[in-house]
Amino acid sequence: MRKSTILTIAGTFIIMTGLLCNLGKSASYSKKINFSEPEEVLGKLNSSTLAAFENSNLNGSDIIYTYDFYECLSSRKRLTSPGVIWSDVDLNINKDKDPKAESERIINDYLTRGKNLKNFKSEKKIQAYNLSGTCIYVYNGKSNIEVDVVLIDEGKGWVIDYFMVRSDVLEGEQNDSSRQ
Questions:
Q1: pTM of the predicted protein model
Q2: What is the DSSP string of 13-38?
Q3: What's the rounded Cα separation, in Å, for the pair 175 and 46?
Q4: Domain ranges of the chain
């Protein structure tokens, strides 16, 4: 009788632990679109609203991200800076700079920053782009921006795993995040 009581308690503990561990997983976002080319991800960014206020009251309202934006991000989405507060973007590959040199610079930065993360692994298929264009902030400001983006193939299509805002020009002032 004593062994059966211990086994019953241990079994109940294991079952409850399993249920509690799986409880929060159903609330996470599951991707519906698989991008076969990196350019498709960039096209989706340019054609979709990325963020908005949770309700129409701007004061105290949280910024929420759209499902279209989540479709473009990797499941890790951990190498980003600063936070995205754009509602819309119009970004194109920066033709003023050498694409090959820029790609190498961006990938090196991505891998260097990734080394600081626990359990970081580099994917085999990586594409990097230096993008420039305009953005509209959720706060109704418009700006010219330059962004470094790394796209990876996670096995289910291309997604953004890293982006870094290199410069942000708003009302004639230049903020270069790479100098900070």
A1: 0.70
A2: HHHHHHHHHHHGGGGS-------SSH
A3: 23
A4: 31-179
